[in-house]
Design a protein that fits this description.
single chain, alpha+beta, Jelly Rolls, 2 domains, 6-stranded antiparallel beta sheet, 12 strands, membrane, transmembrane, transmembrane helix
Length: 325
């Protein structure tokens, strides 16, 4: 079964189709204030499942000898369905706990529908595997090239995926401003007044197209110019038709009271306001605070696996050539 398991290229394709693709597609085809439902994202997974099962079944059939028997057909379908179920379960876990999008999904219904789709795809893959289709293996040069391209694309998509996933996994954000800084709240380049009702953690949100890396400092009761912590990947699309906001920084205050907020950025006319911290569910709520290098590394993993697999195959070929007859 190990040789029929999808390799690094198949893994990279599966991740791309089932994770960033639905998030990016929804973002590009819907209004900014709309958030994706988990059921629509899972349609991408169900659509990719029979293709995956067909590939696995075809590889299994070729590997076991291309026999036209009912037992061979059943074995190919069972193996492909089981492997596809593993991939389906992983994607379901991502959308259940990693990026829990809004709405409800019938998880058992998704699992049962996925099993039927995988079985249908496996049956087609078995027939393909019986054909005399010549397999062309990637050369080492092409393997390294594809691995490098997948690495670059993965790095670029990782940050976008975390941002869109965080936006669509936000369960609550209160459109209640406690004050801020900028032309809409105070004189430009001057500190703004912030009145906070309780001790705790608060969010600083950029208004509209304000830069998302401001140097903000909070001064007040028990604080002397404390720097706000920047959010590494700022989730946005918060707000109403009047204005959109992006969560760019956070800070803690020990007591309720009146504070001053000063923010410096590349735009002197930028505005920043203070809200309650948005409630982002799932693991993605923590990923927005991770170092950017770590997020890039996660995105690069599929491409690095392709490069490592290519290097391993190349080393194995050299050992076969050097081995005595």
């Amino acid at each position: 079964m190990g040789r029929t398991f999808p390799g690094p290229v198949g893994l990279a394709a599966w991740i791309a189709v089932t994770l960033p693709a639905p998030l990016v597609f929804f973002e590009g085809t819907h209004r900014w204030e709309e958030h994706q439902d988990v059921s629509t994202a899972l349609w991408w997974t169900l659509g990719a499942l029979p293709v995956l099962a067909a590939v696995v079944a075809a590889r299994w059939t070729r590997y076991t000898g291309q026999r036209r028997t009912s037992s061979a057909f059943l074995a190919a379908v069972v193996v492909a369905t089981l492997i596809s179920a593993v991939f389906l379960g992983a994607s379901m876990a991502v959308y259940r706990w990693g990026i829990p999008l809004q709405g409800a999904a019938g998880w058992w219904s998704v699992l049962s529908s996925g099993a039927l789709l995988a079985a249908a795809g496996a049956a087609i893959g078995y027939m393909i595997g019986l054909g005399n289709v010549r397999r062309s293996r990637l050369s080492d040069r092409h393997g390294y090239l594809i691995g490098g391209m997948v690495t670059v694309v993965g790095v670029l998509l990782a940050q976008v995926t975390v941002q869109l996933g965080a936006e669509d996994s936000t369960s609550r954000y209160d459109v209640i401003g406690y004050g801020g800084v900028g032309p809409y709240t105070a004189a430009a380049s001057n500190p703004g007044v912030v009145i906070l009702p309780a001790a705790g953690r608060y969010a600083i949100l950029a208004v509209g197209f304000a830069p998302q890396d401001p140097d903000c400092r909070v001064t007040g009761v028990g604080l002397a110019g404390r720097s706000a912590e920047l959010v590494t990947i700022a989730p946005g699309d918060y707000g109403t038709d009047a204005a959109s906001y992006a969560w760019v920084a956070s800070f803690n205050v020990p007591d309720p009271g009146t504070y001053s907020l000063a923010c410096r950025s590349s735009d002197d006319q930028a505005s920043y306001i203070v809200w309650e911290t948005p409630d982002i569910r799932g693991t993605v709520g923590e990923l927005v605070h991770w170092p950017l290098v770590a997020i890039w590394f996660l995105g690069a993993v599929p491409g690095l696996l392709i490069i490592a697999n290519t290097a391993t195959r190349r080393r194995a070929k050299r050992q076969e050539v050097r081995a005595p007859a």
